[in-house]
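Run log, item B.
One chain of 374 residues. Sequence copied directly from the ordering sheet:
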Amino acid sequence: MKLVLLADPFSAHVIKWANGLNSKGIEVLVFGLSEYDPTQFDPRIRIEAFKIPQFVKWQIDGNWMKSTYLFSIIKLKQVIKKFKCDILHAHSASSYGLLGALANFHPYVISVWGNDVYNFPQKSEFYSNLIKFNFRRCEQIFSTSKIMARETSKYTDKEIFVTPFGIDIEKFKPFYSESLFGKNDIVIGTIKSLEKKYGSEDLLKAFIILKNKYPELPLKLLLVGRGSLENYLKKIIKDNRLEDSVIITGFIPFNQIPRYQNMLDIYVAPSTEESETFGVAILEASACEKPVIVSDIGGLPEVVVENQTGFFTRPNNPEMLSAKIELLIFDYELRKKMGAAGRKFVCKNYNWDDNLNQIISVYNQLIENKSESI
């Protein structure tokens, strides 16, 4: 089977999909519109990165995305024909979804990601109709969570197949990882882009509350990622004289993330928007036997068993968040118990190998249906 993934090759999620499907014997070609790190991909994977010129870029939901323009459509059609593609799969129903729709290749699959169905269609009736057009052109729609599938159903009558974004439990597992802090420090942290949507400012404020309340405790905060709030957060850190207690790592390659998950004692995901539809990093933390604290918003409650694998908190509430963290700070045994329960939960429900097999079975059915219709 030959698969063209129409997606951002810089995305850690796309890297994981491409490498995972490749490991199952599928020939994968990634067609993207942005720069990428070739070392993150299996060398057998082909990548076609068509770079849209700076003057024709446009912004969607706060992220620079490359729109669908004449030159990239022509190039995509050429790639599909030369590669002898069997399946075209777009990741995101907006920009890449439109590219795939205009390529007019079938079978065509779209995976919704969040902003593309929560925010993009709300911009105007034109954008809403654009999403509906893209869905009409595809044979199958995938969603990683039930709540996002319900949101997607506002724009299509087609059945939406829920395909959880599973975890590679052989890579994400508990192991010793040398800390960036001291050996006896209690490290609280998150692995997400430093954006308002992911609540990084709320986490920092909650940490400051705890540091002021318990100055004698060796509490540390690890923020793994980069984003538009980085300089703002660094100013808060400096103003509160926390330079020795907080580290912002900047960008970390996906293949290094298991190391950083295992540096943490408590994983926190205080997301603030409903478009946060599936907590991959939360499941990765659970797979590494870390207790988790997450906002009860969007699809995040689907990946946490309350009071067993972690706690829920309200979004935009640093005080409540600090209280939940405090419970785990003072109860080492509870941290261990929740962490162990978290890994069992992931292994049972979100095994990456099982999720890949689900996707491949759908691909095979679509190809079979096409052959029968010819």
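Observations after the first pass:
- The radius of gyration is 21 Å.
- The CA atoms of residues 12 and 254 lie 6 Å apart.
Flagged for discussion on Thursday.
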